[in-house]
Amino acid sequence: MSTVPGTYDLLTDLPYSAFQHVPLRDPDDPALPNTLYPETAVVGWGQRQVLPTTRITTNAWHTLSINDNHSIYINNAQVAADFVRAIRPSYDLNITGTTLRDGEVSLFARVQRAGSGQESRSEPQTVLIKTTLPGGIDRVLGDTWLSGLNMRIENLPEGSVIDPDVAAAGMWCLIDKYENARKNDTIDISVGGVFVTHTLSPAEAAGPGPFRVYVPSDIFARISQSGPVEVSFQVTDVVKNVSGGLGAKYIYSRPVTLESELDTRLLPYPLFNVNGIESALVDLDTQSNAIFTVVVTGLPRAAIAPAPPNRVVVRLTITRPDGSINIVTLPPVNDRNVRTETITVDPNVIRQLAGSTFRVAFETQTAAGSPLVRSGSYQVRVVGTPVVAPLVRPLINGTPNNGTLDLNKFAGNGLLSMEKWPSSAAGQRVWITASSEGVADLVVLNGAVPITANEALNGLANIPVLRTWLQQVKSGRITLTGGITLNGSTDPAMAVAFLPTSYQIRQELGIIESIAVGSQPHYMVITRDGQTAYLTNFGSHTVSVIDIPRRKVTRTISGFNQPFRILLSPDETKLYVGDLAQYSGPAERAVCVVDINSASIIQRFSGFNYIWGLAINPSATRLYVSDSVGSTVTVLDAITGARLSSTPVKNPYGIEYNPLRTLLYVAAPGEVDVFNPADSAGVLSRITGLGWDTTGSNIAFIPNDRPFQRAYVTGTRGITIFNSQTNAIQGVLGGFYNSYGVAMNTRVPECYVTSADNTFTVINTETQTVVRTYMGFFNPAGVAVTPDGFVALVANQANGTLSFVAL
C-alpha cells in the first residue's frame, strides 16, 4: 500500500466490495501472499463482485453527519459519489460493472465532511479486476459440456480399461490451453467424482500448452472399482470466476469415459434412471419433478430364497461443488431373489445437488444387516438451478421478521414456531441456530430428533429459545438460520435452508450489563449514530471510548488530571473536556480540546476554577463554560479559546440549550438563569422559587417541546419542572436524595434521573409522575440516552463501572 498524503486525515477502514472480495494477500500482513504464485494486488474482484453492478461499501467514519460527501476513486479518478442522507453504519456506492476494465487498479475512498470541510481518505489498495472466464464463453449450444475446455488422457483413449497396472502407474491428463488461461488458475480434474487439483504456474499460462496434470495412483483406490469412470475438468481462476460463468449449467469439459476393471469380484454396477430412461445426467431445470430410480441387476439367485429375505441397500456418494463428500444411504429393500430390483430415490435428495456429481452403488445384506457383496458404481452429474428452500421461516412468539422481540412482554423462554413447509413429512430433521455478534451461538434444534407426524401436518411449535441467551445479546440484533433435510438425513450438510429471521432485541427494563471503565466515572456523550460514547474518568485522569453495541472499552485517552464535564463538537471531530485539577506547574484548570481521530489533546483553554457545565453553539464558534467556584458563565471563541465575555452568576452548574437552541439555561443554587447565546448581554431573565436546593444541579428539556415545553432540574431533595416558554414553575417532584444526572428520551415521553441513594428513576413527562425506580447502582453520576431511545448509559462513580440500562 502507498501512503495517503499528509494533507488528509486517514479513514480507519478500507472500502470493500459488498459481495465478499477474494483476499489475494494476508489482510494482517500484506507482504504474505494467499496464492501459490504471488499476486501484486491485495484483493480480487471477479464477475460476482463486478457484474452487473459493482457495489462498494464504506464504513461509517468518525464525526459522520448528514450531507457529508463520500466517494470512490479508481486510478485517481472519481467513479461514484453521494451525500449522506441518514445516519447508518455503512454506505454503498454503485458503479456500472461494464465501465471497469480488467486488470490491476488503485482504489481508495474519500470523505468530505459537511460542517468543517475536513477531508479524509482511505489507504489506496491495489485491486485485481477480472471478469473474463477461464475457457471463455460456451460457443456451442446443445452439448452438455463447456466447449472451451478440452482434455485427453495420455495413452488411454476413450473406452480404455483401468486395470491394476494402470492404477499402479497413475495417468497423465493433457489439457489443451484454454482461453484466458492465467497463473493461479485452479484446475479441478474429476476422476469418477474424486478430484485432483493443479494450480497453473506463470510459465504454463504463458506457454502454448497442453497442461500436463498427473493423477497419482492413490486416487484409483477411491474410484469405482468396477464400471464406467468419467474424467473431466473445470477451472476456477484466482478471483473465483468458474469456467462457464455465473449461473452456467455446464462448467466441465467433455468427459472422457474409461472402464474400471480393478475388482472383478464386484457385482455389476447399477443403472440410474430418470423417468424410466437410463441417464448419467440430471438437469434440474427440466427434471426436478422427474421419477428417479436405481435399477439393480445381476443379483445372486439362490436355489431356495432366504427367509427372512436378504436386502439391497443403495448408496449415493455425493461430491459437492466445494469438493466435500457425503454419503446418502437409501432405505433398504428386500431382495426377492429374482436377480433385479428397482429402488426409488426421493427427488428431494436430487433437487439439492445442483453442480454436484454422485456415484450410485449398492450392497447386499442379510436380513440382520450383515454385508454380503458389493457392486461397482455408476456416476451421475447434476446440473441446472437448485430447487429453492421452503419459503418458511422460524418465528419467536409469533413476532414477524425484522420486528422487535421485547423481553418485557413475556416471561421465561421465547417460543419458536415455524409453519408447515411444502413436502413436509414425518422423519425429516430440522436445524435452527440463533446468532448475534459478541455472543456464542445458541443451537435451538440440532436435527437429533426427527419431526413427528403432527409436526409434519401442522408445523413446529413451542420450541424453547433460552431467555438466558437472549439476555446476553449485546448487539441488539439476533438472526435465526437453519435448514431441513427433506429425506431425513442426519447430515446437516444435506439440509435445505429456510428463510432467515432477524429480530431487534429489547432487553428487560433495568440494568443489562455493567462494564469496568476508569476510576470515578462522571459524564458521557454519545455520537449521533449511537455507536460510540466518550466517558470522563475523574479518578484515573482519562476518557474512555466505549463501543456501545458491543458494550466494550475500545480506547482510552489520557493526558488529563481530573476530567469531569465532556462535550462533543457539532461535527463530532472534537471533544471538549472540563479538567478540574491543575495540569502542570502554574497552569490553571482548563477546558481540554481533544482531536478524536488522533485521540490527543490539541488545545487547553485555561483560567477557570471549577468547570461544571459546557455548551457549544451549532456553528461550533462559541463555547460556553459555567465555573461554579469562580461564579461566572464565560463565552469563549471555540476555535482559539479567546474570552469573549464573562457574566457573574453565583455558583453556576449545569448549562443547557433549549430545544430551539435560541436560549441558554444555567442552573444555580435556588434558581435558573437564562442567557441569549447570540450576544454577550449577560442574564436575560432569572427563574426563581425552585422547590428544592439545586446545588450541583443539571437541566434537561423535553425533546422538541413535545408534548409540553418543559425542563427538568435536579436538586438535593427533588426535581423542579418549569415551563420553558413562560419560565413559570410547573411542578415539583419530591422523594429524591441528591438527584444528579438527568436525560430525556426521544422515543418515549420519559425523563431519567440518577440519585446518590444508588437509584435510577423514570419519570413520565406527560403525567409528570415517577413510574419506575431501579436499584443496583453505585453513587450514579451522569446519564445519557442512545439516539434510538432503547438504552441509557449510567456512570457509577463509586465502583468505576458504566451501566447499560434497557429503557
Q: What this model shows, in words?
A:
This protein is mainly beta and 807 residues long. Among the domains are: 9-129, Immunoglobulin-like (Sandwich), CATH 2.60.40.10; 151-261, Immunoglobulin-like, CATH 2.60.40; 271-383, Immunoglobulin-like, CATH 2.60.40; 395-508, Immunoglobulin-like. The chain is 4% helix and 45% strand. Strands 1, 3, 4, 6, 7, 9, 10 and 11 form an 8-stranded mixed beta sheet that branches. Strands 22, 24, 25, 26, 28, 29 and 30 form a 7-stranded mixed beta sheet that branches. The longest helix is centred in the N-terminal third of the chain and has 6 residues, at 164-169. The chain is elongated, with a radius of gyration of 36 Å. Residues 1-5 and 583-587 have low confidence and may be disordered.
Provide key terms for this protein.
67 strands, 807 residues, disordered N terminus, Immunoglobulin-like, 7-stranded mixed sheet, elongated, 8-stranded mixed sheet, mainly beta, 4% helix
